[in-house]
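Notes to self, Gastrula zinc finger protein XlCGF57.1-like:
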Amino acid sequence: MRLHTRERPFICSVCGKRFSLKDHLKKHMHVHTGEKPFICSVCSKGFSQKQNLKSHMHVHTGEKAFACSVCSKAFSRQESLKTHMLVHTGEKPFSCSICSKRFSQQRKLKMHMRVHTGEKPFVCNVCNQGFSQPRDLKKHMAVHSERPFGCDVCKSRFNQKCVLENHMRVHSGEKPFVCSVCKRRFARQENLKKHMVVHQAGN
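result:
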């Protein structure tokens, strides 16, 4: 009858949360004791609640039962769907305590915080240089790799896309950098800078 009357006489001695059934309180206590009696039969990971184990099993089955009503993207966990929905609502509940910039996801806030802390957890295994973002490490690794950016004309290869773009002007004859004094044009910005010394020396 307590389920209908909403009476909750069983109280957690740790956090004060109330329950209508003693069995529910007993299961809840696993959160505080650290006990994880529900074990995944595939990877042996333990959970304090049966529902958490049930959600976890979707990782192994590949089932994605929670679909977004806006874009139909599906997720294996309801929490993941809730986080995804912030993309559509524009809500940004996670705020930086230093600069007040807001984010839709906690992981994005965590990544942003490295701007303030200077933390660089992504380390190059070749030269040990650290980076705050994984994309920056990926870009850096090209320095050590086999030069992934190739010229279609002469087959020269380069470790960065911007270097390839500079090189392509050799073939195209493009000279986008113009001297503001004599209007002479250059293919590379470095060459324009060197040229400007001629005018500065004449003053």
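- Residues 189-202 form the longest helix (14 residues).
- The chain has a mean pLDDT of 84.
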